Amino acid sequence: MAFTGINHLAMVTADMDRTVHFWRDLLGMRLVVGMGHPGYRHYFFEITKTDCIAFFEWPGVEPVAEKDHGAPVKGPAAFDHISFGVGRVEELHRLKDLLEANDFWASELIDHGFIISLYSFDPNNIPIEFSCPVADCDVHAHPIMIDSHPTRAALEGSEPRGERWRRPEGPAVEHETYPGEAHSVRAAFNRKKP
Fold first, then answer.
1. In a 3-state reduction of DSSP, which class is residue 156?
2. Residue 180 maps to a domain
3. Domain membership flag for residue 85
4. Which member of 41, 112, 122, 178 lies 3.0 to 4.6 Å from 36 by CB, making a disulfide possible if both were Cys?
């Protein structure tokens, strides 16, 4: 398969304005797609020219308890699905055939206007999507908002508004970097180097 990266990670929020302010304004990720209608919103923020993080707004949803990265959790979670990008619609057809040939459920292809998607589940029941961009609907070049009742933050447009957030004062501080698995990873990498 010729994957092109993570098309988008789909997360959940109860407060789209706060989410827009954080991802667009604080982190500087452009709001490239805003879809919705009363009771439903789905907004996409550009990570790179081909990768996004997206959020569904679900009224009444509660944030999950804070936990360390990578630590197992039981109970509520803040994850919806992962979408992997592919370059051509033919790859979606090949993936559907491959998944079904191996007894995994795979949806029909769904045209969302700016991407065409195939949905399935991994063996752990993690919902996954494979998405191919629609060539004549480049939302990264021309962001759209089709939410019939967009949030106030979304009405401010796609471009980041960093002035909303405090900036550190003084020169940049060099922070300590903790090794994590660095030693093991680099040792393994160095053993593999030619």
1. coil
2. no
3. yes
4. 41
